[in-house]
């Protein structure tokens, strides 16, 4: 079959066919699989986002998108793998909030968080819920602040990983409210929640998906939400900003490709990522986990990352959090 005739037949298949035919995509070998690096363990919130996105991107690309978990160093191991693959459109990174946090807290990196990547699309954001052990005699953020001021040094706050958004937002909460509350960093959200259930720590700023079952079972109590808008699922949990003006933090997930892509590859990947993030597959899966799907443009996502790096750098300087 002549190539011109084949392309004419393939065109109606849509974006996936165009991607498969682009010369740069032959770099992936005979399988033509796209590999998505994820700097988190299987089963967690980041992994859930990655697998939902990979499924939706497969439908657009008409080829496999394989999720590869490479946890460690606040996502830097996975990010480094992608950063070192300049020009390769077959390798993607599902980045999360730590991508913008790490430079400000001193974590060593062998890449530049913007210059060594091609931002494709912001996939989703998630507010953090301020939760406490049910025995704590408070019902909202204002009551918590008043209680903590009357009882300095008697409360503790868990952080879901050293240098995580959970920890830094918690440190900012304490700084803005001028509270004497002990910080207890954990290696992830799961052990932090377990100690909360056991009463070893009383407070935590957590993503919704992690604490939802415990809130429903009345084993934890929600006091406030970290964003300026209330959560429809928890209308009684008012924005923390009502007690601490300007308080506005959320976690996020976005897909990046290596730098130096061919313009055609970058444009096609951006369109695929945007469409996948807005797909029913992703929306239904992520909304169930308390995430808010986005699906913006590459330019918008780049501006978002720049703003996030500035925001978290201020938080790191204000709270004194340093890892490196």
From TrEMBL:
InterPro entries: BUG, Bug_dom1
Signal sequence annotation: 1-26
SUPFAM superfamilies listed in its UniProt record: Periplasmic binding protein-like II
Keywords: Signal
Keyword Signal: yes
Family stated for the protein in its record: Belongs to the UPF0065 (bug) family.
Name recorded for this polypeptide: Tripartite tricarboxylate transporter substrate binding protein
Species the sequence originates in: Variovorax paradoxus
């Amino acid at each position: 079959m002549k190539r011109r005739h084949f392309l004419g037949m393939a065109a109606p298949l849509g974006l996936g066919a165009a991607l498969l035919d682009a010369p740069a995509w032959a770099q992936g070998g005979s399988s033509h699989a796209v590999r998505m690096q994820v700097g988190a363990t299987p089963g967690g919130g980041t992994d859930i986002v990655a697998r939902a996105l990979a499924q939706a991107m497969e439908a657009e690309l008409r080829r496999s998108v394989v999720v590869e978990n490479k946890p460690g160093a606040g996502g830097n191991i996975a990010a480094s793998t992608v950063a070192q693959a300049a020009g390769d459109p077959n390798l993607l990174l599902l980045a999360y909030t730590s991508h913008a946090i790490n430079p400000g807290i001193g974590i060593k990196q062998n890449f530049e968080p913007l210059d060594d990547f091609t931002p494709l699309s912001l996939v989703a954001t998630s507010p953090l819920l301020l939760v406490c052990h049910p025995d704590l005699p408070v019902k909202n953020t204002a009551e918590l602040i008043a209680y903590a001021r009357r009882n300095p040094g008697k409360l503790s706050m868990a952080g879901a990983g050293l240098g995580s958004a959970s920890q830094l937002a918690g440190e900012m909460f304490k700084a803005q409210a001028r509270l004497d509350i002990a910080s207890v960093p954990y290696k992830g959200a799961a052990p932090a929640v377990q100690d909360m259930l056991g009463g070893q720590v009383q407070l935590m700023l957590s993503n919704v998906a992690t604490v939802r079952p415990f809130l429903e079972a009345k084993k934890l109590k929600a006091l406030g939400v970290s964003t300026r808008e209330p959560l429809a699922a928890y209308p009684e949990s008012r924005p923390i900003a009502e007690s601490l003006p300007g308080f506005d933090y959320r976690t996020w997930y976005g897909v990046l490709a290596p730098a130096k892509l061919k313009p055609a590859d970058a444009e096609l990947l951006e369109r695929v990522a945007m469409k996948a993030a807005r797909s029913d597959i992703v929306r239904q899966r992520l909304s169930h986990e308390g995430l808010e799907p986005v699906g913006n443009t590459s330019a918008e996502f780049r501006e978002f990352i720049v703003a996030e790096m500035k925001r978290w750098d201020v938080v790191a300087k204000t709270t004194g959090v340093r890892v490196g």
